[in-house]
Amino acid sequence: MCGIAGLVSLDFPKSELAQICVGQLNAIEHRGRCASEVSTFEGCVLGTTRLAIIDIEGGSQPLTSPDGRYTISYNGEVYNYRQLRTELEQDGWIFRTRCDTEVVLAAYSLWGDESCSRLNGMFAFAVWDERLNSLTLVRDRFGIKPLYYWSANGTFAFASQLSGLTSMKMVPRKLDEAAFNEYLALNYVTPPKTLISNISQVRPGATLTVHNGQMKHFKWYSLPTVERGKLSCADVKEEFSFLFERAVKSQLVADVPVGAFLSGGLDSTAIVSVMANEFKVAPCTFAASFREKDYDEGPIASHVANKLGTDHIEEVIEEADWFSLFDETMRYQDSPVADQATIALMALAKRARSRLKVVLTGDGGDELLAGYTTILANRLQPFFGLLPESVIKLVKFIIEKVPAGTGQVSWDFKLRSFLEGVKLSRQDAHATWRLINNQHTIQKILGQGLSYNPASALSAYREAFSNANKALSFDKRAEFADLQVWLVGNNLTRLDAITMGANLEARVPFLDNDLSTFLLAVPFVLKTRGTELKSILRDYLCSQGFSAKVTKRKKVGFHVPIARWFQRGLKKELKERLAAPSILYEKGFLDYDGVNSLLDDHLSGVNNNAFRIFGILVLLSWAEKHL
User: Fold this and answer.
1) Which member of 209, 281, 537, 588 lies 3.0 to 4.6 Å from 447 by CB, making a disulfide possible if both were Cys?
2) 3-state secondary structure of 446
């Protein structure tokens, strides 16, 4: 696992190209502290800062093909590299290392763009073609690994993180208004946008080639849009068990110890159960814990760990440590994701890194196995949408008179969100339930320097829905939309930034090529039973001998009690940070009075604005570093 960066330009001599790239790598050195190297060419430089996981001694980068034509700078892990290596050897490639980097280089050299779909793993890499003087960037199918780029005046630059580009003096730091609008609505930004104008993300499952000053985009992967027919529940159980266990086992390959995050939820429990059966020694597992009992998943995680016999470590997240963890998190989170779990994830990642270099996580399980309660909201919405507007207004009025709850996604928060979308189209309703701020709130906190475009809040979801097969059920199309918006924009961006900030590699077995392809083809009706979500995974855990305490447990999610903490011990510092001078206030991007109004409502218990306030805190901290 690594950080990569580079530059294509005829305006600089080799020595200066190398110097610029070293500056880029310094900005992202936390991604790989084992080694840092650059390779220069006429008009191009590639650089890598490496966290060594496989072939620790021999896997140095950038790596050049024997004929000198191709050079690769690579970030990721390809889990089927041994099988591909055998094929490539049969095609005549003579390997010099044991690492997957050379397998990816050989595959690209011999198979070209076709190689991308044959790589089973997570990756973002750049290949310089010395013969054609062209650079190609490649990103994995789900966007597990990030890749950013900037281009202007004949110069093209790329990096694994935004700071690998904003650290360059030639890159202007100007806020992108469309992305800012989207962030205010969602608390994150979706590909290809970023919060900096003229810096973009390579889309998941895509390549970008730069040749003679021109950029060419190619989409090498799209989500499959056809369901498999004639699948019985028994067929699904059998095939899922085989593919899931194979996926987890394949991601245990490393020359260093591999552990797992274990919350006691269905996803992480299933992963660790396979690890426990595979390992000869007890795998190391890590769980976050809180002193607030209604937020604490420590007991259920310990229950699972005891059953599976893991070497289990519990990290208690303390209220008093929250702002210190927040500041550490923001040092690494270049593409801001204001998901409350990010701060706890940082504490967990640091604890894990003190013991090992690699962990498995359950990300992707909810999207592929029908784990979100919005599925139930989707099914209820058409019926409640028939209610007269007067009835809905009355319910909203009553809710506003009820003191806001501070529990995990409290009932009043859910009901308020549901009513926001009840009269909209089904796809806009689904998107609305993912919003943190509605139009009214955004207009309150938005400064005079920007105008708000309501369509920007829903544009990513509308695009994702439009790309889905209209013949599929609405539930299936919503699944596709969440994979393309929520998963990559929020979950995977957060996971990469935080774990790499801790110098830890996080692997995601649910996004294995074969497993995800199978689950995307399973008819949605086979993924739920009535109001029961994740039926396939529940059945699997039953077959592994887990009791109803685990298999019948409702989805909890990784939540942090910041709603209460903001009203208690964090209140004084929270007020000071929100009131501190910021370029966002000075340039009229945010309105301080509007922000303060949100804070007052939260502190008085009128509304639970914790998610909204956290989003603004993240934005203010991000702007201090990047604008």
Assistant:
1) 588
2) strand
